[in-house]
Amino acid sequence: MDTKHGASATTDPSSPEHDPTAVRRAAWAGLIGTTLEQYDFVIYGTASALIFNKLFFPNISPAAGILASFSAYAVGFLARPLGGLFFSRYGDRLGRKWVLVATLMLMGGATFAIGLLPTYSQVGLLAPALLVVCRFFQGFGAGAEQSGGATLLTETAQIGKRGRLAALVMTGAALGTALGAVAWIGAQLLPEESLMSWGWRLVFFSSLFVTIAAFVIRRKLNESPVFQELKKQHQAPKTPVREVFANGKKPLLIVMFMTIGISSQSYTYQVFMASYLKNDVQIDPTFIPKVLLVGAICGGIAAYFFGRLSDRLGRKPVYMTIVGLLVLLPIPTFLALNTGSHTLITLVMIVGFVFACQGAVGVTMSYFPEIFGSRYRYAGVTLGREFASIFGGGVAPLICAGLITAFSGSWLPVAIYMMIMAVTVLIASYFAPETRDRDLTDPANATDPITIPNPVLEKA
Asked: Which of 124, 279, 363, 373 has its CA 20 to 30 A from that of 427?
């Protein structure tokens, strides 16, 4: 194998990743799986912002109800690293496909179960307890979903096209957000009494259709060519998680710190902003899913665009440029939101989705798998992203809601929080390597990502 100039077994035109059918299946599998994950999270997050405080936490003040609702939301993110630890043991041993099917069924089942739950008025404290349990399993299943899809697509794509293909994972996330918004738009057409009694349940039951569609696609999925080569050479590790901590600590930390701030900004736009617009700006609640829908559509297009751009210019410069813009956006965002203008609100939410929710994360879908060696790639990406989720997206809506309450409705502390989180990402990104077109078959090509040279840059 000639690694000096970036050549590898994966550049052979006859290798499986150049089979159009295999690439198409991998693309659809990654896209539809993340669609389900994001759909589940968005319908739950929107419910947390709009109605769950009344259904499951009715005996406390509205502000406290929002905090309690977002706390239950955060449980899903606390469960993600546990799911990541569990499934990472198998993703690098049994294959990417096995995990993607298992996580799919767990997420879909938990979301469907939420629609069956009794409310506080029916069973008292048991209702929020059951909600937290379902949310836990939602997060546990999601713990290896996006990482698995990103790893599979990155390992399947041919060199020069990894960024755009892996970014389809975030296009799927945008599609999930859009579908979730459509589901809530439909539900809000119902009379208030019908929505609060049974309409919200239909939203959660609808996840069944997405789950079935994803399962049909994934059951025909091929294993990634890189993993097939790893198995053929008997290099699949027995303890990939242990190997990450033994040989991949630096890339693990870099991925974590590159994720925390982006995740915070992403879920602030996707979840907290809905609550802020409804309770603080006093926007008509029926407008909120509509603006989320428009933002998600634009974000999905942006994810593919930035992934493709990173194939041409490199992962690092594209990612750092996006993050630099995110440092500057929070204050203009809140100034626009507080005008109450539907046009300005839609515009800034589109910008938020384009850069924070899908754009930056779309680049990482190929960037992060390229950072790790093949022996522990799945485990490394999963653990890095999901441990970061505890301190990022999981608690961001809760922190933002807490800051709004603590500072008597002032949005400035929230904007400062968002800016600080973006700065931490910018610092972490500075220490990250450029990884475009790396040899993915190398079992440990990123043990020390700061000092390992990029073969493409060397060739140039």
From this structure: 373
Each residue's pLDDT tens digit, 264-292: 999 899 888 988 998 899 998 889 888 98
Q: Is the dihedral of CA 240, 251, 78, 50 positive or negative?
A: negative
Q: How far apart are CA 311 and CA 49, in angstroms?
A: 37
Residue 321 tokens read as: 């440029």
**pLDDT tens column, 373-423:** 777 887 888 888 888 877 887 788 889 989 998 998 899 999 999 999 999
pLDDT recorded at residue 118: 93
Low-confidence stretches of the chain (pLDDT < 50) are 1-17, 446-460
CA separation, residue 105 to residues 141, 142, 177, 321, 334 (Å) = 8, 10, 19, 37, 38
Are 83 and 143 within 8 A, CB to CB? yes
Please state, in angstroms and rounded to a whole number, the distance separating the CA atoms of residues 278 and 416. Answer: 21
- Which pLDDT belongs to residue 315? 96
**φ/ψ of residue 238, rounded to 5:** -75, -30
What angle, rounded to 10 degrees, do the helices at 20-50 and 287-313 form?
140
Write the DSSP string, 209-229.
Answer: HHHHHHHHHHTTPPPPHHHHH
The amino acid occupying position 413 is: P
3 state SS of 246: helix
Q: Cβ neighbours of residue 395 under 8 Å, at least 6 residues apart?
A: 74, 77
Neighbours of 419 (CB within 10 A): 17
With CA atoms as reference, report the closest residue to 380 among 389, 390, 370. Answer: 370
CB atoms within 10 A of CB 390: 18
Please tell me the predicted confidence (pLDDT) of residue 101.
76
Domains of the chain: 15-459 (1.20.1250.20)
Give CA–CA dist 240/253, Å, rounded: 16
Beta strands in 3-106 (DSSP E): none
> Structure pTM?
0.76
Rounded Cα distance, 324 and 306, in Å:
15
> What CA–CA distances, in Å, run from 448 to 153, 154, 249, 269?
24, 20, 8, 34
